[in-house]
Design goal:
- This protein is of the alpha+beta class.
- 60% of the residues lie in helices and 9% in strands.
- The protein is built from eleven helices and four strands.
- Strands 2-3-1-4 form a four-stranded antiparallel β-sheet.
- Helix 6 crosses helix 7.
- It is elongated.
């Protein structure tokens, strides 16, 4: 979660964070306006509640004939939640979380006003809208998190409940969002709504990781081979990659073994596998996906934190 920061105003870091916050808020708003809201998809969080209320209040207010604006209602929920979070959990969210909530709400309502008919979807295919809506939501939230703000809403509710119940925050967030999705089912009485909403929530979660960590094409390898010296030479000289020796022991034979741990690109995995197959066909290789690699030869931890 985003704790209070002490970035100097108009410093490079301050400008970068605020540009990310603005871009993330706009992208998130665009996802709601063009893909999510028109199909009555309920993607959890305060905007899920706001979308339901928007349609339930259609025709109720003369000054809001289409229903209470989604951004306005979301902000009416968000601000009290942030204030409650600060009082109960301490000053953990900072001005950027409030700014992000306001920007997302303003962008959402402005984009809605600019559309001739806001409730008409950009594309009629609801599954296509779920895919693009989830991608934009996840990317937008990822940028907001990257700016060291939070999205407010359901994560604050989960953190408050966690303080008194000691349950895991991640699990509580799933519970909170599930209740909101169920609320959409009760309101719209359509089983397709929660099913499509779950697709959006899943895609959104995946894209948040991509936005935060970037697309990664590296693989981590554990190699157990009697020809470890030759493999080491291949890594260091030909592929110009490093690695680490781990000491191991065969469970059945009790034989002492040298295990190589290394990280290489997808292309280099194929090169290394071909090489090992020629010198030691009985080698044992485990290839693992990696989410993010920080350190020598890759992005430095300092660069990651300061970008």
């Amino acid at each position: 979660m985003a704790f209070l920061t002490k970035d100097k105003i108009f410093s490079k870091k301050w400008i970068q964070d605020n540009l990310l916050l603005i871009a993330g808020s706009f992208t998130l708003a665009a996802a709601f306006v063009f893909f999510v809201t028109p199909h009555k998809i309920v993607p959890g969080g305060v905007y899920g509640i706001a979308i339901v209320v928007h349609y339930l209040t259609e025709g109720v207010f003369s000054f809001w004939p289409d229903g209470i604006p989604v951004g306005t209602f979301a902000l009416l929920i968000d601000i009290p939640l942030i204030i409650a979070g600060i009082k109960i959990l301490g000053p953990r969210f900072g001005i950027k979380t409030i700014t992000g909530s306001v920007l997302t709400a303003v962008f959402t309502d402005l984009l809605t006003m600019m559309r001739p008919d806001a409730n008409i979807p950009l594309v009629d295919d609801i599954l296509l809208s779920c895919l693009f809506g989830g991608v934009l939501m996840g990317f937008g939230l990822g940028l907001i998190f990257k700016s060291r703000a939070t999205s407010g809403g359901s994560d604050i509710i989960a953190m408050i409940i966690a303080k008194y119940t000691h349950l895991q925050i991640g699990r509580l967030m799933i519970y909170v969002d599930s209740v909101i999705v169920f609320f959409g089912l009760l309101a719209f009485r359509d089983w397709a709504i929660p099913l499509y909403s779950l697709i959006v929530i899943y895609i959104c979660g995946k894209l948040i990781d991509t936005a935060l960590e970037g697309a990664n094409y590296n693989k981590a390898l554990l190699i157990v081979s009697r020809k470890h010296a030759e493999i080491k030479e291949k890594l260091l000289v030909d592929l110009e990659r490093g690695g680490t020796y781990l000491n191991g022991e065969g469970m059945f034979t009790g034989e002492q073994k040298k295990i190589i741990y290394t990280v290489v690109s997808r292309r280099e995995v194929a090169i290394l596998q071909e090489f090992i197959s020629k010198i030691d066909p009985d080698a044992f290789i485990t290839v693992m996906d990696t989410k993010e690699i920080l350190g020598e030869g890759f992005q430095s931890l300092n660069q990651k934190v300061n970008n």
